[in-house]
Amino acid sequence: MPRAETPLYGLMAEFADATSIVAAARRAHAEGYRRIDGYSPFPIEELGEALGTRTRGRLPKIVFAGGLLGCAAGFGLQYWCSAVDYPLNIGGKPLNSWPSFIPITFELTILFASLAAVLGMLGLNGLPRPYHPVFNVPEFRLASRDRFFLCIEASDPKFDASATRLFLESLTPGQVYEVAS
Fold it and tell me: With CB atoms 3.0 to 4.6 Å apart as the test, which of 22, 43, 50, 149 could cross-link to 39 if both were Cys?
């Protein structure tokens, strides 16, 4: 019985230095490829810009929303308990004595913002992700040592297996690999 052909995740080119992968990423983005990703053994500041990724992410907005939610929850909980559910008049103060609510409101603001930062970071990065198709290429283990990889995903609207392979080979990489899903 013949084996079913494994679907293609994309094509990946291997480069020897950081300058080459940044130049290749710029050319790939200029050619119209949008679902591309770069892998390197160390952070390269220009690579994100060359890949066309946004420099300002959504995480600050998520953290701000978490902080606002924590602030509202802290103040609302104290207001509900002190003024609505179990009103006690202590020392003639009004039931909604907001200065006494500040410490708890502040603490819940920080707590919710911190949790939003952690969960937002995990969600935006797609973590935890124990498996990624690029791990199917045995040479990809060198990405943590001294090699640089540029992968164009098959889900890219411009992706055509043979044309994309020719394009990647025109960038003079060390090798071009097929990445199985």
Answer: 149
3-state secondary structure of 155: coil
The 10s digit of each residue's pLDDT in 75-89 is 999 999 999 999 888
Task: Please say whether the beta carbons of 120 and 63 come within 8 A.
Answer: yes
The structure's pTM equals 0.70
Question: CA-CA distance, 50 to 120, in Å (whole number)?
Answer: 24
**Residue 173: both structure tokens together:** 């990489």
Alpha helices in 34-160 (DSSP H): 45-51, 59-79, 102-125
H helices present in the chain, as ranges: 18-31, 45-51, 59-79, 102-125, 161-170
**CB neighbour list of residue 164: distance below 8 Å, 6 or more residues apart:** 11, 33, 152, 158
What tokens appear for 155 in the block? 């889900």
Strand 8-15 and strand 36-39: the pairing is unpaired
| pLDDT exceeds 70 at position 3 | no
Check: CB of residue 19 under 8 Å from CB of residue 40: no
Q: Are 159 and 10 in contact (CB under 8 A)?
A: yes
